[in-house]
Write a structure and sequence with these properties.
Keywords: Copper, Glycoprotein, Metal-binding, Oxidoreductase, Signal. By secondary structure, this protein is mostly beta strands. It contains 5 helices and 35 strands. Strands 1, 10, 11, 13, 15, 16 and 18 form a 7-stranded mixed beta sheet that branches. The C terminus is likely disordered.
Length: 585
């Protein structure tokens, strides 16, 4: 992950490598990558283990493209179990077969097999990421997607001197699959990670880690673009660089009005583009990240990962390296102070097109629950689960997108409630509320072109925690958020319908609500799910039946006269790719 120099020399080398303009025009917008899922050995925290990776690296390789390009990724599975890959934040217009969620849009890629994903970029510009979408495999199988401006255009800010991807992730001493398999077998919570990492390294605050601490080497006076990705399994993060201001200019591959701050709060799945100027006395400065976990009753990773922001030049190494002053782990006010400042850029080149009125409204509660646990391995009579409107998702033995387009009956039901079936004080005292839920695979209909509003409502059932929620196939506008129960008469009056941020992952605040709006203009399928619910677990897939090649299906997505175009939208309350989905068609 060396620093990529930008500017004239790189552009000249690229131009000279092309065999005249015809070849340039024919090839510049298509990219090909080969991903090999394979076991590799890594030593961290004084211990060596074998884990699943892409191309033997952790994090995995970075994909580079430009706005509007198409990327083909041939994934070869040389691992021991089936895996899929998701292109987090890529809208994939009319191409849901390549979106990647296991048993929803495709069957897992079996060991010894391969699958070629077609990743179609549209209006995304900035930083996204890719990751496995099977159980907890994404803990070790993930990497960055860097989307530069289209040729002939540039950033809406001065071009930085160089750029670097910063991936914050989780490190488990044990086998990640064994961690989640044990939790599924017993019905309990999975073990927490043993450390956090920056670009694959825990940092020198951990044992046996000083020699390999990641270093970002910079030249004094230069401005750098940092592409920060939160790939942590469960925890939101406070992140900063000692002595240096951060200017946040993008989030989830869309530009925002610049925010100057000493720290960011970034939720699992989110990406942020940050400008940093090396304007301090040449020395070493810590880059650091630790968890934001306000109100969580269960355990979480309380460690701090570090890297070094290191100036080039001749100077004496400092006897001690300063740490950034980050908010403490439960500083809700600091998290809210940051997130409330995020606004869409709303310029002529990067407009905000938020729906001013809506055709369809959904009110969805997010909860932690119990399900019966009857297996011999269970440690209790119940297991942790999660729900949306008290429905906990049940995976089917065939991928759901295939079932819809092949008109296979009995795979899902069309009666998902658009609001809670039972109202109570969701964010108050819930000790008298039944925390049991039920499993089902339910759907509802979204018509093509509908303007949709979804209000996600947090609850205090079992544990009031933050829920990072991600929408596949779309970006959406975060038009409002707040504490307590959503009031449909007063809260919409405070919506931001002028310059809301366009994002693909939102942090639903603890005991609060978040309102999003989008237009259902991408026929096929989308998936909505929280990325981190450490206590809500998937109950297993069964065996997935393989469909025909996806290339034979693509034409079915385009709207045509006389045939209503529909969106298959799967809403899931998922513990890092697990449990409690709503499917919308």
């Amino acid at each position: 992950m060396g620093i990529s120099r930008l500017g004239f020399i790189a552009g000249l080398i690229w131009f000279m490598a092309m065999d005249w303009q015809v070849l340039c025009m024919a090839q510049s917008n298509v990219h090909h990558y080969n991903f090999v899922l394979q076991q590799a050995q890594f030593t961290r925290l004084c211990e060596t283990k074998t884990m699943l990776t892409v191309n033997g690296s952790f994090p995995g390789p970075t994909i580079h493209a430009r706005k509007g390009d198409t990327i083909y990724v041939n994934v070869h599975n040389e691992g021991e179990y089936g895996v899929t890959i998701h292109w987090h934040g890529v809208k994939q217009p009319r191409n849901p077969w390549s979106d990647g969620p296991e048993n929803v849009t495709q069957c897992p890629i079996q060991p010894g097999k391969n699958f070629t994903y077609e990743v179609i970029l549209s209006d995304e510009e900035g930083t996204l990421w890719w990751h496995a979408h099977s159980d907890w495999t994404r803990a070790t199988v993930h990497g960055a997607i860097v989307i530069s401006p289209a040729r002939g255009t540039t950033y809406p800010f001065p071009t930085p001197y160089a750029e670097q991807t910063i991936i914050i992730a989780s490190w488990f001493k044990g086998d990640v699959k064994a961690v989640i398999d044990e939790a599924l077998a017993t019905g309990g919570s999975p073990n927490i990670s043993n450390s956090l990492t920056i670009n694959g390294q825990p940092g020198d605050k951990y044992p046996c880690s000083q020699e390999n601490t990641y270093r970002l080497k910079v030249n004094s006076g230069r401005t750098y673009l940092l592409r920060v990705i939160n790939a942590v399994m469960n925890e939101e993060q406070f992140f900063g660089i000692a002595g240096h201001s951060l200017t946040v200019v993008g989030q989830d591959a869309a530009y925002i009005k610049p925010i100057t701050t000493s720290y960011i709060m970034i939720t699992p799945g989110q990406t942020m583009d940050i400008l940093v100027t090396a304007n301090q006395p040449p020395s070493y400065y810590y880059i650091a990240s630790h968890s934001f976990a306000d109100g969580a009753l269960g355990p979480f990773d309380e460690t701090t990962t570090t890297a070094i922001f290191q100036y080039n030049g001749n100077y004496s190494r400092p006897s001690s390296i300063p740490l950034p002053v980050l908010p403490i782990f439960n500083d809700t006010a600091a998290a809210e102070n940051y997130t409330s400042r995020v606004r869409g850029l709303a310029s002529s080149d990067h407009p905000v097109n938020v729906p001013q009125t809506v055709n369809r409204s959904l009110y969805i509660t997010i909860a932690l629950n119990f399900l019966p646990c009857t297996e011999a391995t269970c440690t209790d009579s119940t297991r942790f689960a999660a729900s949306m409107n008290n429905v906990s998702f049940e995976f089917q033995p065939i991928d759901i997108l295939q079932a819809y387009y092949r008109s296979i009956n009995g795979v899902f039901d069309a009666d998902f409630p658009s609001e809670p079936l039972k109202y109570f004080n969701f964010t108050g005292n819930v000790t008298s509320i039944n925390v049991a839920t039920g499993r089902a695979t339910k759907v509802t209909m979204l018509n093509y072109g509908e303007a949709v509003e979804i209000v996600f409502q947090g609850t205090n059932l079992l544990d009031a925690v933050n829920h990072p929620i991600h929408l596949h196939g779309f970006s959406f506008y975060l038009v409002g958020h707040g504490n307590g129960n959503f009031n449909n008469e007063t809260d919409p009056k405070s919506y931001n319908l002028i310059d809301p941020p366009e994002i693909n992952t939102v942090a639903l605040p603890r005991s609060g609500w978040a309102a999003i709006r989008f237009v259902a203009n991408n026929p096929g399928k989308g998936v909505v799910h929280p990325l981190s619910l450490g206590k809500a677990l998937k109950l297993g897939h069964g065996h997935c039946s393989h469909r025909e090649e996806r290339q034979n299906k693509v034409t079915k997505y385009a709207p045509s006269s006389g045939v209503p175009a529909v969106l298959l939208l799967v809403l899931c309350n998922i513990a890092s790719e697990a449990n409690a989905c709503l499917i919308k068609i």
